[in-house]
Inverse folding.
């Protein structure tokens, strides 16, 4: 256990300060936690709350979602961004319904075998839905460890060693195994990075680790590596893809090419490239008579 990050300080802070998020309710299902984790990837909590509530009411089980077309799930995804996440979740729903009796698996290895489930999501579901004592590492966790343990303002590039670093911090019991508080500690560490030790502002005056933080001890040295640039969205292929998908989301059937042309007139070449990528990703399909529709709606 790292002496620079006393678990009880973080756990006590979490008990007082954690956000009241619906997917943290004690009776929440693994399926509902999985939906939240997929939605929260690269998307702020504030934008996820409404869609998450709508989805768990509409599709309370994997089989309920599996009965829908993938196009309908993409339509319901709306403006959350990166719609391939919705399509992969629909694939997961079908497999979970058919192979796992409509219950999301509780172990990391099985979760990793599902479509679109990466290392973070598998561990997050195992930990937050089923109380498994596994390290869960996202950008927030990496930042807290970089500052409190390593004394650096910003973490380096993501690497496998991040999991080992997080695992070393999990609380242990007297026999050397994981303490019962290990899953809660993982959630608390992530919450600390989201609310206090943020990328925009390190609120050291309210941080439970201020007295033991290595970065504070070193005088809060500035990051000496390259500054990560914020990706622009205006005018990008991503924006063009979104506009084309909007056309199809707002209709109940296939549309002609001309409807898509009107959605992105500034650059025909970019529009063609965006449409081709949507077809390659399987988000959009072409009907036998040359019309365009969301996947499964032809």
């Amino acid at each position: 256990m790292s002496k620079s990050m006393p678990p009880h300080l973080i756990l006590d802070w979490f008990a007082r300060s954690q956000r009241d998020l619906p997917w943290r309710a004690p009776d929440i299902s693994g399926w509902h936690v999985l939906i939240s984790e997929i939605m929260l990837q690269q998307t702020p909590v504030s934008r996820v709350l409404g869609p998450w509530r709508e989805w768990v009411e509409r599709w309370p089980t994997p089989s309920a979602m599996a009965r829908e077309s993938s196009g309908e799930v993409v339509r319901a995804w709306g403006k959350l961004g990166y719609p391939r996440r919705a399509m992969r979740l629909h694939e997961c729903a079908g497999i979970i319904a058919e192979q796992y009796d409509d219950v999301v698996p509780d172990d990391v290895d099985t979760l990793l075998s599902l479509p679109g489930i990466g290392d973070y999501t598998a561990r997050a579901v195992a930990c937050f839905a089923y109380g498994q004592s596994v390290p869960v590492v996202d950008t927030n966790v990496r930042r807290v460890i970089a500052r409190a343990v390593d004394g650096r303002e910003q973490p380096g590039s993501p690497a496998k060693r991040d999991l080992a670093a997080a695992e070393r911090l999990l609380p242990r019991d007297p026999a050397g195994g994981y303490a019962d508080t290990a899953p809660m500690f993982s959630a608390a560490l992530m919450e600390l990075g989201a609310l206090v030790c943020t990328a925009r502002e390190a609120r050291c005056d309210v941080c439970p680790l201020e007295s033991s933080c290595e970065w504070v001890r070193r005088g809060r040295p500035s990051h000496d590596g390259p500054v990560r640039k914020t990706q622009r969205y205006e005018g990008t292929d991503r924006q063009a893809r979104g506009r084309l998908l909007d056309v199809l989301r707002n209709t109940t059937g296939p549309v002609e090419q001309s409807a898509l042309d009107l959605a992105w007139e500034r650059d025909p070449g970019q529009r063609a490239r965006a449409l081709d990528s949507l077809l390659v990703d399987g988000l959009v399909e072409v009907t036998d008579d040359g019309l365009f529709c969301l996947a499964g709606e032809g």
Summary: The mean pLDDT is 93.
